[in-house]
Amino acid sequence: MSENGARGPLAGIRVADFSRVLAGPYCTMLLADLGAEVIKVERPEAGDDTRAWGPPEVSGESAYFLAVNRGKRSIALDLAAERDRDIALALCQSADIVVENFRPGVADRLGIGYETVKASNPGAVYCSIQAYPPGEQPDPRAGLDAIIQAQSGLMSITGETSGEPTKIGVALVDVLTGLNAATAILAALHGRSRTGKGEYVTVALLSAALSGLVNIAQNALTTGIEPGRHGNAHPSIVPYQPFEAADGALVVAAGNDAQFGRLCQVLELPGLPEDARFATNPERVRNRVELLEVLGTRIASWPAEELTARLSAAGVPASRIYGVLEALREPETRGAPATMTVQHPKAGDLELVRPAFRLASTEVGASLPPPLLGEHTAELLAQLTDETP
């Protein structure tokens, strides 16, 4: 049983978490969900920046902070003070994993940089999350998600065809960075189990954004042409977008020729798949405008719920467009709730989104609530004092 009260494959693993905002805390929350003991180091009085990112709030705690900090204990340390720096280094010496997302050079200046930690704890997996890859830092700018969306090209491919570049509605670059960091850390832990040696892991927001472009990046490399914006449509699959039905919108995604054929059967357009312009996906992409006009006219005569049900029954991916709260509630009706409840010291019953992964052999998802600022300082100071030789 780990400190966060959850059984999991990382039970017994300690994480010294010096990160704040989103990418780092998301990474360390995933580790906590898998059973690790995560000790979150925060500035006295102010704490993690996201503690002030409200409203909305729950009993004075910002929803943003609550979203990515379950399963952790909080210790308040002033890393500008020598005594607290010594405590932070002692924490690093006792940790299996150290995660930080300071600007380049700051961790070294605070006495908890990689080389310093490695000298006293050579088995530590040390993860630095930065805005830009090592050696490519153009200046000391902070890695803000919106800036990286702009620099990576992600913003340029998002939005309506004739509209302006658009930021994605969630800080997706930070989330991708946190996932990449957790993946690399787990790989390094596995490597340590074989060699006994630690590892220095670096993850850059820009790198995570560029790798997250996947097929769009490859399209650009293949053609030498800048990708454009396609709104809610797909650049390489048709039809794959929302349509207006008689009483609302639904998304239809016919990803192959067989699905397109079944779509035409439901819509009572049996001759369409035989038309040379639409017989294969490459032809449908080339003749996108003509095809969408035909499909749009027919779909506009159907009630959205009825058409969605007919298409789903026929094996054609389709869905109406859910709101966020509606989407969080709907899985519960199928017996797989998307949320979990923990007991928070100020908010009481606190509903949080479950982790995306499941393990057949054990329950995942940390049972400790997001901590109050410095909530565990006294007990952790005593614990670290006992552990220090």
From TrEMBL:
Domain of life according to the entry: Bacteria
Entry-linked PANTHER family: SUCCINATE--HYDROXYMETHYLGLUTARATE COA-TRANSFERASE (PTHR48207:SF3)
Annotated InterPro entries: CoA-transferase_III_domain, CoA-Trfase_fam_III, CoA-Trfase_III_dom3_sf, CoA-Trfase_III_dom_1_sf
Name this protein carries in UniProt: Formyl-CoA transferase
A Pfam family: CoA_transf_3
Keywords for the protein's UniProt record, in alphabetical order: Transferase
Gene Ontology MF term list: CoA-transferase activity
